[in-house]
Design brief:
Length: 473
């Protein structure tokens, strides 16, 4: 059983890597266009293609993808893709650990970086950084499900492991159709932002493309060291704020709106999402002063949606404002969005569950169901939400303690773990937006790489493959 599962995992992984090699073509063409060193993308393309073909044909199998297989395929895919995506950074002069950190940060849409002066990078490398985030935002596996009919029914097992959020809802009965619709909406929003930034905000076309490729996946990489603030363009900031908000919203809502259903405020998660954002913005603006309202709004939206763009060094803000932003790193965006962290839907569910438990304490014999959007929630959904919340906080605490023993101060330890686990990007303290992660000890970078991996797949998918019982099932 174990041998068959590993064989199937590497066979499917090989199919994915074979097509992933095509992603190197845009930066390769860009390098040729600007007269840059195109070899740094040709070699990774050939290596990725060769490994993909070796895995696909060397581990050929007729085994059908089952539920347990989804855990290994998705976990290994999200490990191997950043490993191979790190090759261009090695050619640029990074050591392998830093290259792996940057690639994992890109594909998981974290936005934490170990690179210093970003403007010194070749334009092809800047485009590669942005492409890794754009592919990771909606999910590389979701893309493969959309374009590879051979996955068949097994695609549902992979889709559920890559998007393991609570109360999953499909746009269409078939997972392949759902994946296509998600990618269509995602691509449409990206194209719209590029057009608005270029034609209306007057950013350069290359910058408009790179920033847009990192906004919809709530990624956070930019072609500038100073992030979005380096452009000093208020109109561009408002456009980016709007698309960050959309990216942090459940894509099912976007689909309903496109169909003409405008009753989005009936959705309890969306209402709480907006409410939390308004309260957080008011708190930050109050602490920083009304004159910095635009920075306040921008940073709240950026952090809550786990995008990680910055227009100011919020690590130096008032302690109260920093605490609000730290809390938002744990809350995150809506379920079904490209945002990370615990997700608003889980927070809403836990609040409702707490309210019901208090009512039951007063009336022990009363039957009071937990309802979400006027529908009773099944007990297994509540167990999943509570288990995830406990495990998320436990991982954050353990990882923060380890970083503290490595010499990091409390604020830096806690915020770096919070932001990497939430796939958010810059943290507080010594990993704020005015700094980066290059100075961390090697062990600290490894811990944060694991946090990014766990956070992108929402913990359970990765943890399952480390249980001995899983391999016996």
């Amino acid at each position: 059983m174990v041998r068959q599962r590993i064989r199937l995992t590497f066979h499917i992984l090989g199919s994915f890597l074979k097509y992933l090699a095509l992603v190197y073509i845009p930066p390769l063409v860009t390098a040729l266009h600007y007269g840059e060193n195109w070899v740094i993308f040709l070699y990774p393309l050939l290596i990725t293609l060769a490994i993909g073909l070796f895995f696909e044909f060397g581990f050929k199998t007729t085994r059908v993808i089952e539920r347990a297989d989804g855990f290994t395929i998705v976990s290994f895919t999200w490990l191997f893709v950043p490993l191979l995506g790190a090759i261009p950074y090695v050619f640029l002069g990074c050591n392998f650990l830093d290259a792996f950190f940057e690639a994992m940060s890109g594909f998981t849409t974290t936005g934490a970086t170990v690179l210093g002066n970003v403007e010194e990078l070749p334009k092809s490398a800047l485009l590669w950084r942005s492409l890794t985030q754009w592919l990771g935002g909606m999910g590389v596996i979701a893309l493969f499900i959309a374009i590879l009919p051979r996955l068949g029914v097994g695609g549902s097992q992979l889709f559920e492991r890559e998007f393991p959020g609570p109360m999953p809802e499909r746009l269409r009965p078939r997972f392949r159709t759902t994946a296509r619709l998600l990618w269509t909406i995602y691509t449409g929003f990206t194209a719209a932002e590029i057009a608005l930034l270029y034609f209306w905000a007057k950013l350069r076309l290359f910058d408009s493309i790179c920033v847009s490729l990192c906004t919809l996946p709530t990624g956070g990489f930019t072609p500038t060291t100073g992030s979005v603030g380096a452009y000093a363009n208020p109109l561009a900031e408002y456009i980016i704020m709007a698309f960050m908000f959309l990216a942090g919203t459940n894509f099912l809502i976007h689909y309903q709106v496109l169909k003409g259903n405008l009753k989005i405020f009936k959705d309890e998660e969306f209402r709480l999402y907006v409410t939390l954002m308004v309260i957080a913005s008011a708190s930050v603006i109050f602490s920083q002063g009304i004159g910095l309202y635009r920075d306040g709004f921008f940073q709240v939206i950026s952090i809550m949606t786990c995008t990680g763009f910055s227009t100011a060094d919020f690590a130096s803000w008032h302690f109260g404002a920093r605490m609000v932003l730290l809390a938002l790193m744990f809350i995150g965006g809506c379920g079904g969005s490209t945002g990370g962290a615990i997700k608003v839907v889980r927070i809403a569910t836990l609040l409702k569950y707490t309210k019901v438990m208090m009512r039951r304490a007063l009336s022990p014999k009363a039957v009071i169901p937990v309802k979400y959007n006027q529908k009773p929630l099944a007990e297994d959904v509540m167990r999943d939400v509570i288990s995830f919340f406990f495990l998320y906080i436990l991982v954050a605490i353990v990882a923060s303690i380890i970083l503290s023993f490595l010499g990091l101060d409390l604020e830096t330890s806690l915020s770096s773990v919070a932001t990497c686990l939430a796939n958010c990007g810059p943290g507080l303290g010594a990993v704020g937006p005015a700094s980066n992660y290059a100075w961390l000890p090697a062990a600290g970078k490894v811990i944060l790489i694991v946090c990014m991996w766990l956070g992108r797949l929402e913990l359970f998918t990765v943890f399952m493959i480390f249980f001995p019982r899983f391999w016996k099932s």
